[in-house]
Amino acid sequence: MKNPLVLIVDDEPDIRELLEITLNRMSMDTLCATDVSSAKALLQQEQFDLCLTDMKLPDGNGLELVDLIQEMPESMPVAVITAHGNMDTAILAMKKGAFDFISKPVDLLILRQLVNSALKTTVPRVTGDRRTRHILLGDSPVMREIRGRINKLALSQAPIYISGESGAGKELVAKLIHRQSARNAHLFVAINCGAIPLELMESEFFGHKKGSFTGASSDKQGLFQAAEGGTLFLDEVADLPLSLQVKLLRALQEKKIRPVGDSREVPVDIRLLSATHQNLNDMVLAGTFRQDLYYRINVIDLHVPSLRERPEDLPELIEHILAKLIGASTLNKPTLSNTALVALQHYDFPGNVRELENIMERALALYEGDRIELKDLNLPMNTVMSNRMSDLSNNGVSTLFNPAESSLEDYLEKIEKTMLTRALEENRWNKTAAAKQLGLSFRSFRYRLKRLNLDDKD
User: Fold this and answer.
1) What topology is assigned to 308-451 in CATH?
2) Which pLDDT score is estimated for 261?
3) What is the value of pTM for the model shown?
4) Tens of pLDDT along 114-151?
């Protein structure tokens, strides 16, 4: 089997020699370049499996090579070597697509870990959408985009900040990034930062030595060590106190931790994912979250949309939730009435998917017969009829509801029919254009037309 071929780009002879010797001992072949121009020439002549490049070169910098490699038909992982403490350039390189970084003086253990992780990313994998569409449900454009990004982001070591409201599925997205990555043979360790007592946080994150404080009766491994080789997911990272933010920043920059009571630093190899429903940028401005840590964990931002941003995904989500709650048996599986579905699609869902699960679990306990009706959902209808209906009145559709004249179910159906018909008329009965105007997928739009007996229009 052919040895991996690594391109080393550095103008310092001692660094090149150190990298060559280390990689050769790992059964890898190497070619060296001393500047950007000679590196570009080698990239045209050979097919490399990995590139290690210094940032500061005689005729340019390593970012030029990062950009060039990203544009190549057969890209490869590229890691940058930075001066000690120069994190700005390392973060910029990862934003541009670099796999990871290593600081000078080069720690050989960290170098070997980086190289092994990088080479694993070259193994071909099935595209993210095909592997995740039955886990991260929804056929809306925003969900298709997220599934596509997951596969791409899994090829990097860059820290990812997953933003989104409570219950939107941030941890599920983090798990899928880990599962798609070369780290999937190791642990995915998730922790809710707001659930750890302040006095135990440092010990939980970095571990401690026996006798380091009252109650430390034995050595304890921290979360960083538990996630060795894998992924560490910090949920609600905004809840970290400033004292721990400083130590977390150092751990990420140095790739080393110091257990409480230990005099030695321990190298760690983890990929960091973090999330919160709070606005970290506002917290930085308020001085409650460190700006340098924010930049460090927010190398790549991945936003998980709220449920109200993708109402066309509700039928599939409801079907999945009902199947999960009822179990494998399909006997007596209820359906959702049209009016109940319309009401859910006009509901704001402050708790997102988690709230939808609670609503459907409650509905299963209340429904009678073979169908879940609007009354079984027990929704706060004042909320359903407020935010979502205001935009209808702005478009000339009356939203004044009179219980004496019609039921709420009939009223919601009438509004939906009016909006669909208007969209069709404004787009000369072009269904594709009308669906786009309403923010619906074409499949969801056709389903609604059929349900409301509008599909016979020409």
Assistant:
1) Helicase, Ruva Protein; domain 3 (1.10.8)
2) 86
3) 0.77
4) 999 888 876 444 444 445 677 888 888 999 999 989 98
Q: Which fold has domain 5-120?
A: Rossmann fold (3.40.50)
For 140-305, the fitting CATH number among 3.10.350.10, 3.40.50.12580, 3.40.50.300, 3.40.50.280 is 3.40.50.300
Tell me the average pLDDT across 18-42.
Answer: 95
The answer for 423, left when phi > 0, alpha when psi is -120 to 50, beta otherwise, is alpha
Neighbours of 428 (CB within 10 A): 8
pLDDT in tens, 340-383: 888 888 888 989 999 999 999 999 888 888 889 888 988 875 55
Checking 386-392 for CB contacts under 8 A at 24+ apart, the result is 387/348, 388/308, 388/346, 388/347, 388/348, 389/346, 389/415, 392/419
Of residues 126 and 9, more confidence is placed in 9
- CB–CB of 133/147 below 8 Å? yes
- Residue ranges of the chain assigned to CATH 3.40.50.300: 140-305
**C-alpha span between 105 and 257 (Å, rounded):** 17
Are 7 and 41 in contact by the 8 Å Cβ rule? The answer is no
Specify whether the CB–CB gap between 221 and 279 falls below 8 A.
no
Q: How far apart are CA 443 and CA 420, in angstroms?
A: 14
